[in-house]
Amino acid sequence: MTSTARETLKKYFGFDDFRPMQEEIIETFLKGSNVLALMPTGGGKSLCYQVPALATDGLCLVISPLIALMNDQVQNLRRQNITAFSIHTGMQRREVISILEMAAHSNCKFLYVSPERLETALFKEFLPALGIRFIAVDEAHCISQWGYDFRPPYLRIANLREALPGVPVIALTASATPVVQQDICDKLLVEGEPPFRIFRQSFNRPNLSYSVFKITSRIHKIVNVLRSVQGSAIVYCKTRKRSKEISEMLSAQGLEADFYHAGLPTEERAKKQERWVKNQVRVIVCTNAFGMGIDKPDVRAVIHADLPDCLENYYQEAGRAGRDGKKAFAVLLYDDAAIDELKSLPEIRYPDVTTIRNVYRNVVHYLQLPQGEAPGHSYDFNLKDYIKKFSQDIQTTLYGLKALEQDGWLSFNEQVFSPSTLRFHIYKEDLYEYEKKFADYEPLIKTLLRTYEGIYDYPVYISETFIARRLNFDVAVIKEQLHKLHADGVIIYQPQKDEPQVMLTRTRIKTDLLTINREEHEKRKNIFTERIQKMIDYATDVSECRSKTIGHYFGDTALNDCGVCDNCLQRKKPSLSNEHFTAITADLKAALTKPLTTEAVFSLLKEHRREHIWTVINHWVDEGSIFIEPDGKIFYKQG
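Predicted structure:
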Protein backbone atom coordinates (compact mmCIF):
# COMPACT_ATOMS: atom_id res chain seq x y z
CA MET A 1 0.00 0.00 0.00
CA THR A 2 1.39 3.40 -0.92
CA SER A 3 2.22 5.79 1.90
CA THR A 4 0.11 8.38 0.06
CA ALA A 5 -3.04 6.31 0.62
CA ARG A 6 -2.26 5.86 4.31
CA GLU A 7 -1.56 9.54 4.69
CA THR A 8 -4.85 10.29 2.92
CA LEU A 9 -6.72 7.95 5.26
CA LYS A 10 -5.26 9.66 8.30
CA LYS A 11 -5.57 13.22 6.98
CA TYR A 12 -9.19 13.13 5.90
CA PHE A 13 -10.76 10.33 7.93
CA GLY A 14 -8.61 10.14 11.06
CA PHE A 15 -7.90 6.41 10.85
CA ASP A 16 -4.44 4.88 11.29
CA ASP A 17 -5.27 1.57 9.64
CA PHE A 18 -7.58 0.21 6.98
CA ARG A 19 -10.28 -2.34 7.74
CA PRO A 20 -9.84 -5.89 6.45
CA MET A 21 -9.72 -6.03 2.65
CA GLN A 22 -9.95 -2.24 2.18
CA GLU A 23 -6.19 -2.01 1.70
CA GLU A 24 -6.05 -4.63 -1.05
CA ILE A 25 -9.12 -3.18 -2.81
CA ILE A 26 -7.68 0.35 -2.80
CA GLU A 27 -4.27 -0.84 -3.97
CA THR A 28 -5.85 -2.78 -6.86
CA PHE A 29 -8.08 0.14 -7.85
CA LEU A 30 -5.18 2.62 -7.73
CA LYS A 31 -3.28 0.41 -10.18
CA GLY A 32 -6.11 0.87 -12.68
CA SER A 33 -7.89 -2.49 -12.36
CA ASN A 34 -11.66 -2.86 -12.41
CA VAL A 35 -12.97 -4.05 -9.04
CA LEU A 36 -16.15 -5.61 -7.67
CA ALA A 37 -16.27 -5.30 -3.88
CA LEU A 38 -18.86 -7.11 -1.79
CA MET A 39 -18.78 -5.64 1.69
CA PRO A 40 -21.44 -5.77 4.39
CA THR A 41 -23.48 -2.75 5.41
CA GLY A 42 -21.22 -0.56 7.54
CA GLY A 43 -18.11 -2.29 6.18
CA GLY A 44 -16.49 0.87 4.85
CA LYS A 45 -17.34 0.64 1.14
CA SER A 46 -17.14 4.40 0.50
CA LEU A 47 -13.50 4.62 1.60
CA CYS A 48 -12.59 2.18 -1.17
CA TYR A 49 -13.16 4.91 -3.77
CA GLN A 50 -12.76 8.03 -1.62
CA VAL A 51 -9.17 7.30 -0.61
CA PRO A 52 -7.93 6.60 -4.18
CA ALA A 53 -9.67 9.75 -5.44
CA LEU A 54 -8.17 11.94 -2.72
CA ALA A 55 -4.73 10.37 -3.16
CA THR A 56 -4.55 11.20 -6.88
CA ASP A 57 -5.44 13.98 -9.30
CA GLY A 58 -8.80 14.13 -11.04
CA LEU A 59 -12.46 13.61 -10.22
CA CYS A 60 -14.28 10.50 -9.05
CA LEU A 61 -17.73 10.03 -10.58
CA VAL A 62 -19.99 8.22 -8.11
CA ILE A 63 -23.21 6.68 -9.44
CA SER A 64 -25.86 6.04 -6.81
CA PRO A 65 -29.66 5.64 -6.84
CA LEU A 66 -30.12 6.80 -3.24
CA ILE A 67 -30.60 10.56 -3.16
CA ALA A 68 -30.64 10.84 0.64
CA LEU A 69 -27.39 8.87 0.83
CA MET A 70 -25.79 11.03 -1.89
CA ASN A 71 -26.69 14.18 0.01
CA ASP A 72 -25.28 12.74 3.25
CA GLN A 73 -22.01 11.79 1.54
CA VAL A 74 -21.65 15.24 -0.06
CA GLN A 75 -22.27 17.01 3.25
CA ASN A 76 -19.81 14.76 5.09
CA LEU A 77 -17.10 15.40 2.49
CA ARG A 78 -17.68 19.15 2.54
CA ARG A 79 -17.29 19.20 6.33
CA GLN A 80 -13.75 17.98 5.69
CA ASN A 81 -13.17 20.76 3.13
CA ILE A 82 -13.42 18.29 0.23
CA THR A 83 -15.25 19.71 -2.80
CA ALA A 84 -18.18 17.46 -3.73
CA PHE A 85 -21.48 17.91 -5.58
CA SER A 86 -24.51 15.80 -6.44
CA ILE A 87 -26.87 15.74 -9.42
CA HIS A 88 -30.06 13.73 -9.20
CA THR A 89 -33.67 13.39 -10.26
CA GLY A 90 -35.82 16.42 -9.52
CA MET A 91 -33.18 19.13 -10.03
CA GLN A 92 -33.89 22.08 -12.29
CA ARG A 93 -31.89 22.39 -15.51
CA ARG A 94 -30.05 25.57 -14.54
CA GLU A 95 -29.04 24.05 -11.19
CA VAL A 96 -27.60 21.03 -13.02
CA ILE A 97 -25.71 23.30 -15.43
CA SER A 98 -24.31 25.29 -12.50
CA ILE A 99 -23.03 22.15 -10.76
CA LEU A 100 -21.53 20.68 -13.93
CA GLU A 101 -19.72 23.95 -14.64
CA MET A 102 -18.26 24.01 -11.15
CA ALA A 103 -17.29 20.34 -11.29
CA ALA A 104 -15.51 20.94 -14.59
CA HIS A 105 -13.69 24.14 -13.62
CA SER A 106 -12.88 23.70 -9.92
CA ASN A 107 -10.94 21.34 -7.70
CA CYS A 108 -13.99 19.09 -7.38
CA LYS A 109 -13.04 15.59 -6.20
CA PHE A 110 -16.42 13.85 -6.14
CA LEU A 111 -19.48 14.19 -8.34
CA TYR A 112 -22.42 12.04 -7.22
CA VAL A 113 -24.88 11.36 -10.04
CA SER A 114 -28.12 9.40 -10.17
CA PRO A 115 -28.12 6.87 -13.06
CA GLU A 116 -31.03 8.65 -14.78
CA ARG A 117 -28.74 11.63 -15.45
CA LEU A 118 -25.99 9.72 -17.27
CA GLU A 119 -27.39 9.83 -20.78
CA THR A 120 -28.99 13.25 -20.78
CA ALA A 121 -27.67 15.56 -23.49
CA LEU A 122 -26.55 18.02 -20.82
CA PHE A 123 -24.41 15.48 -18.97
CA LYS A 124 -22.88 14.18 -22.22
CA GLU A 125 -22.02 17.74 -23.21
CA PHE A 126 -20.00 18.33 -20.04
CA LEU A 127 -18.51 14.81 -19.77
CA PRO A 128 -15.23 15.48 -21.64
CA ALA A 129 -14.49 18.51 -19.43
CA LEU A 130 -14.98 16.75 -16.09
CA GLY A 131 -11.56 15.09 -15.97
CA ILE A 132 -12.88 11.82 -14.58
CA ARG A 133 -10.15 9.66 -13.04
CA PHE A 134 -12.28 6.98 -11.37
CA ILE A 135 -15.85 5.67 -11.61
CA ALA A 136 -17.57 4.24 -8.52
CA VAL A 137 -20.88 2.38 -8.87
CA ASP A 138 -22.69 2.17 -5.54
CA GLU A 139 -25.53 -0.34 -5.02
CA ALA A 140 -24.09 -2.17 -8.03
CA HIS A 141 -26.62 -5.01 -7.79
CA CYS A 142 -29.10 -2.56 -9.38
CA ILE A 143 -27.41 -3.16 -12.75
CA SER A 144 -28.52 -6.80 -12.87
CA GLN A 145 -32.06 -7.62 -13.88
CA TRP A 146 -31.64 -10.86 -11.92
CA GLY A 147 -30.99 -8.87 -8.75
CA TYR A 148 -33.56 -7.93 -6.14
CA ASP A 149 -33.55 -4.23 -7.02
CA PHE A 150 -32.95 -4.01 -10.78
CA ARG A 151 -32.99 -0.44 -12.13
CA PRO A 152 -32.72 -0.11 -15.93
CA PRO A 153 -31.03 3.34 -15.78
CA TYR A 154 -28.00 1.50 -14.38
CA LEU A 155 -27.54 -0.14 -17.78
CA ARG A 156 -26.46 3.28 -19.08
CA ILE A 157 -23.22 2.93 -17.14
CA ALA A 158 -21.99 0.58 -19.87
CA ASN A 159 -22.29 3.41 -22.43
CA LEU A 160 -20.54 5.77 -20.04
CA ARG A 161 -17.60 3.37 -19.78
CA GLU A 162 -17.34 3.24 -23.56
CA ALA A 163 -17.09 7.05 -23.57
CA LEU A 164 -14.33 7.00 -20.91
CA PRO A 165 -11.81 4.42 -22.13
CA GLY A 166 -9.14 3.51 -19.63
CA VAL A 167 -11.01 4.89 -16.62
CA PRO A 168 -11.24 2.11 -14.01
CA VAL A 169 -14.52 1.32 -12.28
CA ILE A 170 -15.20 0.01 -8.80
CA ALA A 171 -18.61 -1.63 -8.28
CA LEU A 172 -19.79 -1.83 -4.67
CA THR A 173 -22.62 -3.75 -3.06
CA ALA A 174 -23.44 -5.28 0.29
CA SER A 175 -25.41 -8.19 -1.13
CA ALA A 176 -25.28 -9.99 -4.46
CA THR A 177 -25.68 -13.67 -5.24
CA PRO A 178 -23.04 -15.36 -7.45
CA VAL A 179 -25.32 -15.02 -10.50
CA VAL A 180 -25.77 -11.29 -9.85
CA GLN A 181 -22.03 -10.84 -9.21
CA GLN A 182 -21.23 -12.28 -12.63
CA ASP A 183 -23.94 -10.19 -14.27
CA ILE A 184 -22.52 -6.99 -12.72
CA CYS A 185 -19.07 -7.77 -14.14
CA ASP A 186 -20.48 -8.68 -17.58
CA LYS A 187 -22.56 -5.49 -17.79
CA LEU A 188 -19.71 -3.17 -16.76
CA LEU A 189 -16.77 -4.75 -18.57
CA VAL A 190 -15.56 -3.05 -21.75
CA GLU A 191 -14.38 -5.33 -24.55
CA GLY A 192 -10.64 -5.90 -24.44
CA GLU A 193 -10.27 -5.23 -20.71
CA PRO A 194 -9.03 -7.86 -18.24
CA PRO A 195 -11.77 -9.39 -16.05
CA PHE A 196 -12.90 -7.73 -12.85
CA ARG A 197 -11.00 -8.44 -9.65
CA ILE A 198 -13.67 -9.63 -7.18
CA PHE A 199 -13.23 -9.00 -3.45
CA ARG A 200 -15.74 -10.43 -1.01
CA GLN A 201 -15.57 -9.91 2.71
CA SER A 202 -16.63 -12.86 4.79
CA PHE A 203 -20.30 -12.93 5.67
CA ASN A 204 -19.35 -14.22 9.10
CA ARG A 205 -20.47 -11.92 11.93
CA PRO A 206 -19.24 -13.76 15.05
CA ASN A 207 -20.75 -11.18 17.43
CA LEU A 208 -24.22 -11.33 15.81
CA SER A 209 -26.64 -14.02 16.96
CA TYR A 210 -29.41 -14.80 14.43
CA SER A 211 -32.69 -16.21 15.75
CA VAL A 212 -36.07 -16.98 14.20
CA PHE A 213 -39.29 -17.42 16.15
CA LYS A 214 -42.67 -18.64 14.98
CA ILE A 215 -44.99 -16.55 17.10
CA THR A 216 -48.59 -16.29 18.21
CA SER A 217 -48.24 -12.83 19.76
CA ARG A 218 -45.94 -10.48 17.86
CA ILE A 219 -45.89 -7.67 20.43
CA HIS A 220 -45.34 -10.06 23.35
CA LYS A 221 -42.20 -11.47 21.72
CA ILE A 222 -40.87 -8.04 20.77
CA VAL A 223 -41.30 -6.81 24.35
CA ASN A 224 -39.62 -9.99 25.65
CA VAL A 225 -36.59 -9.48 23.41
CA LEU A 226 -36.28 -5.77 24.22
CA ARG A 227 -36.45 -6.41 27.95
CA SER A 228 -33.79 -9.12 27.69
CA VAL A 229 -31.44 -7.19 25.42
CA GLN A 230 -30.81 -3.69 26.72
CA GLY A 231 -29.64 -0.84 24.51
CA SER A 232 -30.52 0.71 21.18
CA ALA A 233 -32.82 -1.31 18.92
CA ILE A 234 -34.58 -1.24 15.56
CA VAL A 235 -37.92 -2.95 14.88
CA TYR A 236 -38.69 -3.32 11.16
CA CYS A 237 -42.31 -3.53 9.95
CA LYS A 238 -43.77 -3.87 6.47
CA THR A 239 -46.32 -1.03 6.68
CA ARG A 240 -46.39 2.54 7.92
CA LYS A 241 -49.54 1.87 9.92
CA ARG A 242 -47.97 -1.06 11.75
CA SER A 243 -44.84 0.94 12.63
CA LYS A 244 -47.01 3.47 14.48
CA GLU A 245 -49.14 0.79 16.15
CA ILE A 246 -46.17 -1.22 17.45
CA SER A 247 -44.42 1.95 18.63
CA GLU A 248 -47.49 2.93 20.65
CA MET A 249 -47.81 -0.57 22.13
CA LEU A 250 -44.14 -0.59 23.17
CA SER A 251 -44.54 2.84 24.77
CA ALA A 252 -47.56 1.52 26.67
CA GLN A 253 -45.29 -1.24 28.02
CA GLY A 254 -42.86 1.35 29.39
CA LEU A 255 -40.30 1.08 26.56
CA GLU A 256 -39.04 4.31 25.00
CA ALA A 257 -40.09 3.94 21.35
CA ASP A 258 -40.86 6.09 18.34
CA PHE A 259 -41.90 5.32 14.75
CA TYR A 260 -40.46 6.32 11.37
CA HIS A 261 -41.67 5.94 7.79
CA ALA A 262 -41.42 7.68 4.43
CA GLY A 263 -44.82 9.33 4.77
CA LEU A 264 -43.69 11.68 7.52
CA PRO A 265 -42.54 15.25 6.77
CA THR A 266 -38.80 15.60 6.20
CA GLU A 267 -38.09 17.62 9.34
CA GLU A 268 -40.10 15.25 11.52
CA ARG A 269 -38.17 12.27 10.13
CA ALA A 270 -34.88 14.07 10.76
CA LYS A 271 -35.85 14.82 14.39
CA LYS A 272 -36.93 11.24 15.04
CA GLN A 273 -33.72 9.89 13.52
CA GLU A 274 -31.54 12.31 15.48
CA ARG A 275 -33.21 11.45 18.81
CA TRP A 276 -32.63 7.74 18.20
CA VAL A 277 -29.02 8.21 17.07
CA LYS A 278 -28.33 10.23 20.25
CA ASN A 279 -30.00 7.51 22.40
CA GLN A 280 -32.75 9.89 23.50
CA VAL A 281 -35.16 7.23 22.22
CA ARG A 282 -34.20 3.60 22.68
CA VAL A 283 -36.30 1.86 20.01
CA ILE A 284 -37.14 3.04 16.52
CA VAL A 285 -40.03 1.15 14.88
CA CYS A 286 -39.84 1.68 11.15
CA THR A 287 -40.37 0.58 7.59
CA ASN A 288 -37.37 -0.21 5.38
CA ALA A 289 -37.18 3.52 4.51
CA PHE A 290 -35.08 3.80 7.67
CA GLY A 291 -31.43 2.95 8.04
CA MET A 292 -29.60 3.80 4.81
CA GLY A 293 -26.52 5.86 5.54
CA ILE A 294 -27.03 5.87 9.31
CA ASP A 295 -23.77 5.16 11.11
CA LYS A 296 -24.82 3.95 14.57
CA PRO A 297 -22.49 1.17 15.73
CA ASP A 298 -24.07 0.43 19.13
CA VAL A 299 -27.36 -1.13 17.98
CA ARG A 300 -27.83 -4.19 20.20
CA ALA A 301 -30.90 -5.68 18.53
CA VAL A 302 -32.64 -5.62 15.15
CA ILE A 303 -36.07 -7.24 15.22
CA HIS A 304 -38.07 -7.98 12.09
CA ALA A 305 -41.73 -8.01 13.03
CA ASP A 306 -42.57 -9.11 9.48
CA LEU A 307 -40.89 -11.37 6.94
CA PRO A 308 -38.83 -9.48 4.33
CA ASP A 309 -39.33 -10.68 0.75
CA CYS A 310 -35.67 -11.66 0.22
CA LEU A 311 -32.49 -12.52 2.07
CA GLU A 312 -30.70 -9.54 0.48
CA ASN A 313 -32.94 -7.08 2.34
CA TYR A 314 -32.92 -9.13 5.52
CA TYR A 315 -29.12 -9.39 5.61
CA GLN A 316 -28.64 -5.65 5.09
CA GLU A 317 -31.20 -4.67 7.71
CA ALA A 318 -30.18 -7.26 10.29
CA GLY A 319 -26.56 -6.24 9.71
CA ARG A 320 -27.22 -2.86 11.31
CA ALA A 321 -26.91 -4.59 14.69
CA GLY A 322 -23.57 -4.85 16.44
CA ARG A 323 -21.36 -2.88 14.08
CA ASP A 324 -19.18 -2.03 17.08
CA GLY A 325 -18.18 -5.70 17.23
CA LYS A 326 -19.95 -6.32 20.54
CA LYS A 327 -22.64 -8.90 21.19
CA ALA A 328 -25.87 -8.17 19.32
CA PHE A 329 -29.02 -9.99 18.19
CA ALA A 330 -30.93 -10.25 14.90
CA VAL A 331 -34.42 -11.62 15.53
CA LEU A 332 -36.93 -12.61 12.84
CA LEU A 333 -40.59 -13.23 13.68
CA TYR A 334 -43.17 -14.96 11.50
CA ASP A 335 -46.42 -16.91 11.52
CA ASP A 336 -48.29 -19.04 8.95
CA ALA A 337 -50.16 -16.01 7.61
CA ALA A 338 -46.84 -14.30 6.82
CA ILE A 339 -45.67 -17.34 4.84
CA ASP A 340 -48.92 -17.41 2.83
CA GLU A 341 -48.66 -13.68 2.17
CA LEU A 342 -45.12 -14.03 0.82
CA LYS A 343 -46.16 -16.84 -1.49
CA SER A 344 -48.87 -14.65 -3.00
CA LEU A 345 -46.51 -11.75 -3.70
CA PRO A 346 -45.25 -12.72 -7.20
CA GLU A 347 -48.72 -12.32 -8.73
CA ILE A 348 -49.04 -8.89 -7.11
CA ARG A 349 -45.49 -7.67 -7.84
CA TYR A 350 -45.60 -8.71 -11.49
CA PRO A 351 -48.99 -7.58 -12.85
CA ASP A 352 -50.32 -8.51 -16.30
CA VAL A 353 -49.87 -6.29 -19.37
CA THR A 354 -53.41 -4.89 -19.20
CA THR A 355 -52.81 -3.65 -15.65
CA ILE A 356 -49.42 -2.17 -16.62
CA ARG A 357 -50.96 -0.30 -19.56
CA ASN A 358 -53.71 1.01 -17.33
CA VAL A 359 -51.14 2.40 -14.87
CA TYR A 360 -49.22 4.03 -17.73
CA ARG A 361 -52.39 5.66 -19.10
CA ASN A 362 -53.37 7.00 -15.68
CA VAL A 363 -49.89 8.31 -14.87
CA VAL A 364 -49.35 10.21 -18.12
CA HIS A 365 -52.87 11.66 -17.85
CA TYR A 366 -52.23 12.67 -14.24
CA LEU A 367 -49.01 14.42 -15.28
CA GLN A 368 -50.82 15.91 -18.32
CA LEU A 369 -48.20 14.65 -20.75
CA PRO A 370 -49.31 14.72 -24.41
CA GLN A 371 -48.38 12.06 -26.95
CA GLY A 372 -44.90 12.71 -28.29
CA GLU A 373 -43.67 14.27 -25.03
CA ALA A 374 -39.88 13.84 -25.00
CA PRO A 375 -38.13 11.91 -22.23
CA GLY A 376 -35.69 13.30 -19.67
CA HIS A 377 -37.74 15.71 -17.54
CA SER A 378 -38.68 14.93 -13.91
CA TYR A 379 -42.20 15.46 -12.60
CA ASP A 380 -43.45 15.58 -9.00
CA PHE A 381 -45.80 12.67 -8.43
CA ASN A 382 -48.14 12.97 -5.46
CA LEU A 383 -49.20 9.39 -4.77
CA LYS A 384 -52.08 10.28 -2.46
CA ASP A 385 -53.53 12.76 -4.91
CA TYR A 386 -53.06 10.35 -7.83
CA ILE A 387 -54.82 7.48 -6.02
CA LYS A 388 -57.68 9.75 -5.05
CA LYS A 389 -58.17 11.03 -8.60
CA PHE A 390 -57.87 7.69 -10.40
CA SER A 391 -59.27 5.34 -7.73
CA GLN A 392 -56.31 3.02 -8.21
CA ASP A 393 -54.97 1.24 -5.13
CA ILE A 394 -51.41 1.91 -4.06
CA GLN A 395 -50.10 -1.63 -4.67
CA THR A 396 -51.35 -1.70 -8.27
CA THR A 397 -49.83 1.75 -8.83
CA LEU A 398 -46.43 1.02 -7.30
CA TYR A 399 -45.93 -2.37 -8.95
CA GLY A 400 -47.25 -1.10 -12.27
CA LEU A 401 -44.72 1.73 -12.10
CA LYS A 402 -41.98 -0.73 -11.19
CA ALA A 403 -42.84 -2.91 -14.19
CA LEU A 404 -42.79 0.14 -16.48
CA GLU A 405 -39.43 1.13 -15.03
CA GLN A 406 -37.94 -2.33 -15.47
CA ASP A 407 -39.02 -2.36 -19.09
CA GLY A 408 -37.46 1.05 -19.68
CA TRP A 409 -40.57 3.24 -20.15
CA LEU A 410 -40.02 5.54 -17.20
CA SER A 411 -38.03 6.07 -14.03
CA PHE A 412 -39.83 6.13 -10.70
CA ASN A 413 -38.07 7.32 -7.58
CA GLU A 414 -40.33 6.86 -4.59
CA GLN A 415 -37.93 8.26 -2.00
CA VAL A 416 -36.84 11.72 -3.12
CA PHE A 417 -36.03 13.43 0.17
CA SER A 418 -33.77 16.18 -1.09
CA PRO A 419 -33.01 19.07 1.28
CA SER A 420 -33.29 22.68 0.16
CA THR A 421 -30.30 24.06 -1.74
CA LEU A 422 -29.28 27.64 -2.42
CA ARG A 423 -26.57 29.49 -4.32
CA PHE A 424 -26.11 33.21 -4.94
CA HIS A 425 -26.50 34.05 -8.61
CA ILE A 426 -25.72 37.77 -8.68
CA TYR A 427 -22.47 39.76 -8.78
CA LYS A 428 -21.47 41.04 -5.35
CA GLU A 429 -21.57 44.69 -6.41
CA ASP A 430 -25.09 44.15 -7.80
CA LEU A 431 -26.10 42.44 -4.56
CA TYR A 432 -25.09 45.56 -2.64
CA GLU A 433 -27.37 47.66 -4.83
CA TYR A 434 -30.20 45.14 -4.43
CA GLU A 435 -29.93 45.30 -0.62
CA LYS A 436 -30.20 49.09 -0.71
CA LYS A 437 -33.27 48.91 -2.92
CA PHE A 438 -34.98 46.10 -0.97
CA ALA A 439 -33.94 46.74 2.63
CA ASP A 440 -36.47 44.23 4.02
CA TYR A 441 -34.44 41.40 2.50
CA GLU A 442 -31.08 42.52 3.87
CA PRO A 443 -31.29 40.51 7.17
CA LEU A 444 -31.98 37.30 5.26
CA ILE A 445 -29.20 37.95 2.72
CA LYS A 446 -26.67 38.75 5.45
CA THR A 447 -27.65 35.65 7.45
CA LEU A 448 -27.25 33.39 4.42
CA LEU A 449 -23.80 34.80 3.64
CA ARG A 450 -22.61 34.50 7.24
CA THR A 451 -24.07 31.05 7.90
CA TYR A 452 -23.20 29.04 4.79
CA GLU A 453 -19.62 28.91 3.60
CA GLY A 454 -19.19 28.64 -0.17
CA ILE A 455 -22.74 29.81 -0.91
CA TYR A 456 -21.40 32.03 -3.73
CA ASP A 457 -19.41 29.17 -5.27
CA TYR A 458 -21.81 26.23 -5.33
CA PRO A 459 -25.27 25.14 -4.10
CA VAL A 460 -25.27 24.51 -0.37
CA TYR A 461 -27.86 22.69 1.72
CA ILE A 462 -29.88 25.08 3.88
CA SER A 463 -32.53 24.79 6.57
CA GLU A 464 -35.33 27.34 6.38
CA THR A 465 -36.29 26.49 9.98
CA PHE A 466 -32.76 27.18 11.24
CA ILE A 467 -32.62 30.52 9.37
CA ALA A 468 -36.04 31.49 10.76
CA ARG A 469 -34.85 30.81 14.32
CA ARG A 470 -31.73 32.92 13.82
CA LEU A 471 -33.75 35.85 12.51
CA ASN A 472 -36.73 35.30 14.82
CA PHE A 473 -38.99 35.19 11.74
CA ASP A 474 -41.79 32.83 10.85
CA VAL A 475 -40.67 29.99 8.54
CA ALA A 476 -43.37 30.95 6.03
CA VAL A 477 -41.88 34.47 5.79
CA ILE A 478 -38.39 33.07 5.16
CA LYS A 479 -39.68 30.80 2.39
CA GLU A 480 -41.63 33.67 0.82
CA GLN A 481 -38.51 35.87 0.80
CA LEU A 482 -36.37 33.07 -0.64
CA HIS A 483 -38.83 32.60 -3.48
CA LYS A 484 -38.77 36.36 -4.13
CA LEU A 485 -34.94 36.42 -4.21
CA HIS A 486 -35.05 33.46 -6.59
CA ALA A 487 -37.57 35.19 -8.88
CA ASP A 488 -35.38 38.32 -8.93
CA GLY A 489 -32.34 36.29 -9.98
CA VAL A 490 -30.44 36.99 -6.76
CA ILE A 491 -30.24 33.33 -5.78
CA ILE A 492 -30.91 29.89 -7.22
CA TYR A 493 -33.20 28.35 -4.62
CA GLN A 494 -34.39 24.75 -4.81
CA PRO A 495 -36.90 23.97 -2.00
CA GLN A 496 -36.73 20.57 -0.36
CA LYS A 497 -38.53 17.76 -2.15
CA ASP A 498 -40.70 15.21 -0.45
CA GLU A 499 -42.65 14.19 -3.53
CA PRO A 500 -41.77 11.03 -5.47
CA GLN A 501 -40.47 11.73 -8.95
CA VAL A 502 -41.46 10.26 -12.31
CA MET A 503 -39.30 10.74 -15.39
CA LEU A 504 -40.11 9.41 -18.86
CA THR A 505 -37.18 7.46 -20.30
CA ARG A 506 -38.95 6.91 -23.65
CA THR A 507 -41.15 9.23 -25.67
CA ARG A 508 -44.77 9.26 -24.44
CA ILE A 509 -46.83 7.04 -26.76
CA LYS A 510 -50.46 6.03 -27.16
CA THR A 511 -51.27 3.57 -24.38
CA ASP A 512 -52.53 0.85 -26.73
CA LEU A 513 -49.11 0.77 -28.42
CA LEU A 514 -47.22 0.14 -25.18
CA THR A 515 -45.55 -3.26 -25.14
CA ILE A 516 -43.74 -5.22 -22.43
CA ASN A 517 -41.05 -7.84 -22.99
CA ARG A 518 -43.18 -10.68 -21.65
CA GLU A 519 -40.38 -13.23 -21.66
CA GLU A 520 -38.12 -11.04 -19.51
CA HIS A 521 -41.07 -10.01 -17.33
CA GLU A 522 -41.89 -13.67 -16.66
CA LYS A 523 -38.26 -14.54 -16.01
CA ARG A 524 -37.94 -11.76 -13.42
CA LYS A 525 -41.15 -13.03 -11.82
CA ASN A 526 -39.74 -16.57 -11.60
CA ILE A 527 -36.49 -15.35 -10.04
CA PHE A 528 -38.48 -13.28 -7.55
CA THR A 529 -40.47 -16.41 -6.67
CA GLU A 530 -37.21 -18.29 -6.05
CA ARG A 531 -35.93 -15.51 -3.78
CA ILE A 532 -39.14 -15.63 -1.76
CA GLN A 533 -38.76 -19.39 -1.36
CA LYS A 534 -35.18 -18.93 -0.08
CA MET A 535 -36.50 -16.44 2.48
CA ILE A 536 -39.20 -18.89 3.57
CA ASP A 537 -36.62 -21.71 3.75
CA TYR A 538 -34.42 -19.56 5.98
CA ALA A 539 -37.31 -18.77 8.33
CA THR A 540 -38.62 -22.32 8.63
CA ASP A 541 -35.32 -24.24 8.73
CA VAL A 542 -34.64 -25.51 12.25
CA SER A 543 -31.34 -27.29 11.64
CA GLU A 544 -28.89 -25.36 9.41
CA CYS A 545 -26.65 -22.65 10.87
CA ARG A 546 -28.25 -19.26 10.09
CA SER A 547 -24.92 -17.61 9.24
CA LYS A 548 -23.97 -20.44 6.88
CA THR A 549 -27.35 -20.23 5.13
CA ILE A 550 -26.90 -16.51 4.52
CA GLY A 551 -23.25 -16.88 3.51
CA HIS A 552 -23.96 -19.71 1.05
CA TYR A 553 -26.76 -17.67 -0.51
CA PHE A 554 -24.22 -14.98 -1.37
CA GLY A 555 -21.54 -17.43 -2.48
CA ASP A 556 -19.45 -17.49 0.70
CA THR A 557 -19.02 -21.24 1.08
CA ALA A 558 -16.08 -21.11 3.49
CA LEU A 559 -18.18 -20.45 6.59
CA ASN A 560 -18.26 -22.84 9.52
CA ASP A 561 -21.18 -23.10 11.93
CA CYS A 562 -21.39 -19.84 13.90
CA GLY A 563 -22.19 -21.59 17.18
CA VAL A 564 -24.38 -18.72 18.42
CA CYS A 565 -27.54 -18.73 16.26
CA ASP A 566 -30.70 -20.42 17.50
CA ASN A 567 -30.17 -23.54 15.34
CA CYS A 568 -26.53 -24.00 16.36
CA LEU A 569 -27.43 -23.61 20.02
CA GLN A 570 -30.33 -26.03 19.68
CA ARG A 571 -28.05 -28.67 18.19
CA LYS A 572 -25.65 -28.33 21.11
CA LYS A 573 -28.30 -28.78 23.77
CA PRO A 574 -28.24 -32.61 23.83
CA SER A 575 -24.51 -32.60 24.57
CA LEU A 576 -25.09 -30.38 27.59
CA SER A 577 -26.34 -32.44 30.52
CA ASN A 578 -28.67 -31.02 33.12
CA GLU A 579 -25.89 -31.34 35.65
CA HIS A 580 -23.45 -29.42 33.44
CA PHE A 581 -26.13 -26.79 32.64
CA THR A 582 -26.72 -26.26 36.37
CA ALA A 583 -22.98 -25.98 37.04
CA ILE A 584 -22.47 -23.33 34.36
CA THR A 585 -25.51 -21.42 35.62
CA ALA A 586 -24.06 -21.39 39.13
CA ASP A 587 -20.66 -20.23 37.88
CA LEU A 588 -22.32 -17.49 35.80
CA LYS A 589 -24.22 -16.24 38.86
CA ALA A 590 -21.00 -16.12 40.81
CA ALA A 591 -19.10 -14.35 38.03
CA LEU A 592 -21.76 -11.83 37.08
CA THR A 593 -21.81 -9.83 40.29
CA LYS A 594 -21.19 -6.91 37.98
CA PRO A 595 -21.61 -6.47 34.20
CA LEU A 596 -18.83 -8.20 32.24
CA THR A 597 -17.84 -8.57 28.60
CA THR A 598 -18.36 -12.02 27.10
CA GLU A 599 -14.58 -12.45 26.81
CA ALA A 600 -14.22 -11.77 30.53
CA VAL A 601 -16.91 -14.36 31.24
CA PHE A 602 -15.13 -16.95 29.06
CA SER A 603 -11.89 -16.25 30.93
CA LEU A 604 -13.51 -16.72 34.33
CA LEU A 605 -15.34 -19.87 33.21
CA LYS A 606 -12.43 -21.33 31.19
CA GLU A 607 -13.09 -24.84 32.52
CA HIS A 608 -16.30 -24.89 30.48
CA ARG A 609 -16.58 -24.99 26.67
CA ARG A 610 -17.50 -21.70 25.03
CA GLU A 611 -20.43 -23.10 23.09
CA HIS A 612 -21.87 -24.50 26.33
CA ILE A 613 -21.51 -21.11 28.02
CA TRP A 614 -23.27 -19.51 25.04
CA THR A 615 -26.09 -22.04 25.30
CA VAL A 616 -26.65 -21.23 28.96
CA ILE A 617 -26.36 -17.44 28.40
CA ASN A 618 -28.89 -17.49 25.57
CA HIS A 619 -31.26 -19.67 27.59
CA TRP A 620 -31.27 -17.20 30.46
CA VAL A 621 -31.54 -14.24 28.08
CA ASP A 622 -34.72 -15.82 26.70
CA GLU A 623 -35.93 -16.40 30.26
CA GLY A 624 -35.26 -12.80 31.23
CA SER A 625 -32.64 -13.52 33.89
CA ILE A 626 -29.54 -12.49 31.95
CA PHE A 627 -29.50 -9.10 30.27
CA ILE A 628 -27.34 -7.52 27.57
CA GLU A 629 -26.42 -3.91 28.40
CA PRO A 630 -26.13 -1.14 25.77
CA ASP A 631 -22.32 -1.50 25.71
CA GLY A 632 -22.60 -5.24 25.01
CA LYS A 633 -21.77 -6.38 28.56
CA ILE A 634 -23.94 -8.98 30.25
CA PHE A 635 -25.25 -9.21 33.79
CA TYR A 636 -27.33 -11.61 35.84
CA LYS A 637 -30.48 -10.39 37.54
CA GLN A 638 -30.02 -11.75 41.04
CA GLY A 639 -33.06 -13.17 42.79
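Summary: The chain has a mean pLDDT of 89.
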